[in-house]
Fold this sequence. Notes:
With 396 residues, the chain is an alpha+beta fold. The chain contains 10 helices and 12 strands. It starts with 8 loop residues before the first strand and ends in a 15-residue tail after the last strand. 42% of the residues are buried.
Amino acid sequence: MRQLSGVPRExxxxxxxxxxxxxxxxxxxxxxxxxxxxxxxxxxxxLLRTEEDFLLYRKAIGHSNLFDTSIILDTSQKILxxxxxPVRRDQLTRREKFVFSRMTQVVFQYMLEKFPDPEEHLxxxxxxxxxxxxxxxxxxxxxxxxxxxxxxxxxxxKLYNSPAAADDNPNLTDSGYHGLxxxxxxxxxxxxxxxxxxDVLIPLEPDKARLKSTGYPQGLPSWEVRGGAEALNHGRFxxxxxxxxxxxLDFYRTLFSLIASNDARIPKNASYPDQIEDVLLFxxxxxxVARMLREQVLEDPLFAxxxxxxxxxxxxxxxxxxxxxxxxxxxxxxxxxxxxxLGIVVKRExxxxxxxxxxxxxxxxxxxxxxxxxxxxxxxxxAGPSWPHGLFVPPK
Length: 396
């Protein structure tokens, strides 16, 4: 029996506690970002690695036990400075970006084949980027500070039957300034993206991209993928996916530069400088929001610490209830995971018995996706403890 629809949901997801001892004097987030822990992640939950060091791995503490995996550019053993690793696609080499896009294409199309009914399953993949001003010790900071793409599937029935998330849940507020985007900047945000020369991505009105179960995303620019899954097989889609990111980076840098210095200028190396001047710098709403945020930073030390001065974003590709593939993008914030962009707050609970009941099915799907990547010459398998020979082995 379905409950109320169109409200953000809090979904419970069981996991098995990871037997790791965190050294005294180190916060969990600092430990999770350490080269030693990332090496442990690869050896315990790694599924596949490419020549470029892209790592496909199981999310041991995940969002969904139906399907949940990530691809990261694991440079942790080569680049020891966690702030020196790539965190966005525009920081990748041409070859790295090509491989990253192909891996995303293969895994997402596997998900579409495995879960073909959009009325039954919500599918999504997305990147959540951090920036250099994000404190490592901040609660809720994602544990891997490098570029990553997260793939997951949810049962729509579970979403409908999950309780509503609290209105003041911090994961739905973007540290206080998402509300300003919704209330004051939605129109100029949408208008700024109109400059993009898009053929595959069709602009949607914000309300037309919402999920029935959660009513999200809200107030964000969204685009339908013309041609659906077939479009992912062509480079033009991935070029336009990058254009959306470059447009967002221009918008973000212009706004936060104005907040930081009160100087209305076009950022260096802007991708769309004419549009910045025409739409943003001549928008009174744009300047009004910058003034409000600037005054709050000056008066409120807690809020000042929440501001991300360098671009931090979430960009996702998801399949909605009617089967459309949709792209959207938003600014990121502390504690705001990729699922919350679609109104899904995940409550993780240690429950070994519950996790054991679903682990075999989950791992087998991940191994199937891995086989697809290997078939298409995208990496070599890793023999994890739970799949030493490519088959699931229950933990002792």
